[in-house]
Write a structure and sequence with these properties.
The protein is an all-beta fold and 153 residues long. The protein is 0% helix and 56% strand. It is built from no helices and eight strands. The chain has an eight-stranded antiparallel beta barrel with strand order 1-2-3-4-5-6-7-8. It is elongated, with a radius of gyration of 16 Å. This is Lipocalin-like domain-containing protein.
């Protein structure tokens, strides 16, 4: 599986838990992943947007047969306020889970991401869980205009 180690590019899509105009929007993601046996470790960077942090964070997971499970931990989250458009950065820990399948021949993976929003903050917020789709494809560095220096490379 070491041939899968390297650079990956793709996107995630805002799904349930997001209202228009955000529902269905794509956010570019880029990763540097290391596959060792069935374990995966690396970093993930997402494009900065209304609900995406633009940060580089650790990602880890595993592959079992053709199933893949990845987990990313964040410590802040842009939260939509009651007006439906304003966001505020809330300091808290939360996890995004990426589950899906991997195609070894095409060196591509995709699936469903989800997060449960349990927030304790100075704001009185009740935020529903959110989910959407995601896709990553292995690439040679650099294939896109993505700035890999954000990954510390």
């Amino acid at each position: 599986m070491q041939e899968l180690s390297g650079y990956w590019e793709g996107y995630f899509i805002y799904g349930l838990g997001f209202e228009l105009p955000f529902f269905g929007e794509r956010v570019k993601i880029n990763a540097q992943l290391t596959f060792e046996d069935s374990e995966i470790i690396g970093t993930l960077t997402e494009e900065k947007g209304p609900f995406s942090t633009g940060k580089t964070v650790a990602i880890n997971g595993y592959v079992e047969d053709f199933l893949i499970s990845l987990e990313v931990q964040y410590s802040t989250n842009p939260v939509i306020l009651e007006d439906g458009f304003t966001t505020e950065e809330i300091e808290h820990d939360f996890t995004i889970n990426y589950n899906g399948t991997i195609n070894f021949q095409k060196k591509a993976m995709n699936g469903l991401w989800y997060m449960e929003n349990e927030i304790e903050s100075h704001l009185d917020l009740e935020i529903p869980p959110a989910e959407g789709l995601w896709v990553l494809k292995k690439v040679k560095k650099p294939q896109s205009n993505f700035d890999y220096s954000l990954l510390g490379l």
